[in-house]
Amino acid sequence: MRHAGLLLVIAFAFVSPSLAQLRPSSADIDGYRGMLAAAARDDAAAIASLAAGGARLDERDAHARTPLLVAAHLGRHAAMQRLAQLGADANALDADRYDAVTIAAVANDVATLRVALALGTRATNVTSRYDGTALIAAAHLGHVDVVRELIRAGAPLDHVNNLGWTALIESIVLGDGGPRHVATLQALIDAGANPNLPDRQGTTPLALARGRGYAPMVAILQRAGAR
Fold it and tell me: By residue range, what is the domain housing residue 155?
């Protein structure tokens, strides 16, 4: 039984943005110097001073995180804003192809998400090893408030990742059928997501929800005209 549980965790890691995404560790932060260190401690004045002295705004740590991405992970809004004002790339990707919006989406950090969007990080970016979007990641995790913010920001509702799944499908197949994922599905439907786009095997969202016994999701899909 213990062995089976371990295999389940390993399998889930291949499709879980929350497991794939790497927040800077304490050791990473302790090792930061210059611009990365200033971003980690939210020191906007130091960022400006370092930039004036020629420091690179988009330097990278060992995981290819820029100072702005480090700041996004840590919720350092003043640092994010100053870096962007000085010309840092708001759409930079780290080694696993996460941007500031997807970082905030996975963390369920609405405040940081709003800052990233205001600074120009695009909700339309294709991110992660799964060629997905921040909206797909948030739908997978049932982060409904993030989903609503991303919808308002123009995130593509029907983007299909390299697993063959949309945000709507991920809310079903990677969700638990509980209130957060039900609300996520409803938000996607209300925004106009296509309820009939099937997965790679041709299985529709309605069939996926039925197969899992997710009655509230089945009802939502049926009301939306799913077949």
Answer: 1-18+123-227
Could you write out the DSSP letters of every residue in the chain?
-HHHHHHHHHHHHTT-HHHH--PPPHHHHHH--HHHHHHHTT-HHHHHHHHHTT--TT---TT---HHHHHHHHT-HHHHHHHHHTT--TT---TT---HHHHHHHHT-HHHHHHHHHTT--TT--BTTTTB-HHHHHHHHT-HHHHHHHHHTT--TT---TTS--HHHHHHHSS-SSHHHHHHHHHHHHHT--TT---TTS--HHHHHHHTT-HHHHHHHHHTT--
Query: Measured between alpha carbons, how far is 154 from 112 in angstroms, rounded to an integer?
Result: 17
When divided into structural domains, the chain yields a total of 2
Tell me, yes or no, if the pTM score tops 0.85: yes
Residue-wise pLDDT tens digits, 163-204: 999 999 999 999 999 999 999 999 999 999 999 999 999 999
Cα angle, residue 111 at apex, residues 110 and 116 outer, rounded to 5°: 95
Q: Token match 């330097």: residue?
A: 59
**14 and 27 fall within a common domain:** no
What's the rounded Cα separation, in Å, for the pair 104 and 114?
Answer: 9
> Nearest Cα to 131, choosing from 100, 161, 168, 102?
161
Q: What are the pLDDT digits (tens) for 54-68? A: 999 999 999 999 999
